Amino acid sequence: MVLPYTIKHIQLDQLSEKNIISKLDGSSYYFFWWRQIPLGHLFVEHHKVFNNSDADYKILTVIASTVNFYNAKPELTDVYRRAFLEKDYVGFTKTMDEIFGTYSSEKIIAENKLDISVIICTRNRSTDLQVCLESLFKQICIPKEIIIVDNAPTDDSTLKVVEKFKGVTYCKEPKPGLSIARNTGIQKAQYPIIAWVDDDVQVHPLWAYRVWETFLTPSITAMTGLVIASSLDTESQQIFEKFWSFNRGYQDHFYDSLFYHNTLPFGPKASDIGAGANMAFRASVFKEKGDFNELLGAGASGCSEDSEMWYRIIADKRFTIQYNPRCIVYHKHRRELSSLNKQLFSYMRGHVVAVLIQQTQNSEAGYLKYLYKGLPIYYLRLFKSGFPFYSHRFRTLLSESKGIISGLRFYHKNKKKLPVINDKSIQL
Question: Per the confidence metrics, is the pTM higher than 0.70?
Fold first, then answer.
């Protein structure tokens, strides 16, 4: 039997003599925060408990790299650590506020509305959609436009949900396919920043502000954000979070033409940039780079329409993509193992198609070596490492393998439909 993990969010800025962390319990998934800024996470397995000072040292270990990333004054490192271990929470708070001062949520002044178009593409998931919309309307700063693209629906449940929310635009796209729905949203959007969230997420209260804030830097063309699991009750959810997580960490990362060219011989891992469940672009980039590839995404190849777009962007020396971990959504992972297997089949299918498409855009990319050598070696080593006692990581291997084969077939069947990439738009 698989035991659930309880997700516990620990606000380190709220510690006091009366509110201390005496232990870290087993069967728990901890997230540590400082004033709305995520610092790190920790799985405490079912048989394990950290008590007293062990818990304090464990927390400091988890948050150390993130605090160091934000800390512009190295001399403060020993100060905050010592204060935390001595449970001097007044001194700890003072030092941490000095470290994180620039990013403090307390300094955010709520704008009336932000020049952002938020697009949610959905199909027959009205219950999830309502929860997502409710979280959007609880934002400290509200986006000026929210567009729901109802993709080939079989009923009017999505429309009925949208009608509950004043000012939300409903758009029905009869042709199925996530990329098609995304492109329909682009045509409808009126504002210079276009952001997407999936219908099965809830957004953090500062999400829209953090999106807007990211694009204050002129060189940023696109962004992705942190995706946190909203529950880990089932084996399926735990497998996904441990081995397929959308979480890309707690420090900013920048992806540009330097990253592209440095990784070109190995095939740039555009999928590492983030997740389509939480992403945004300058609207102007679609005029230069084109829309999402309609051979990719749910309803077509399976996924990776987002990463293929990121690939096109970072190939251009004028553009940079930022991963911003302060821009946060909470994702509802699939509860059933059967659903996860279908999801990962689609993921690998779409991934294979995407990397082959990306190979056609630059013959020097090392995707063929990755696909025909790197992936087989990875799965062979994975299989050998588990023999004969296979953990739950191996519950999805067959679906992943079938997805790879299906992706190869899909690409070769549909490659004549590939759009022509305008090489003149790429500034090398």
Answer: yes
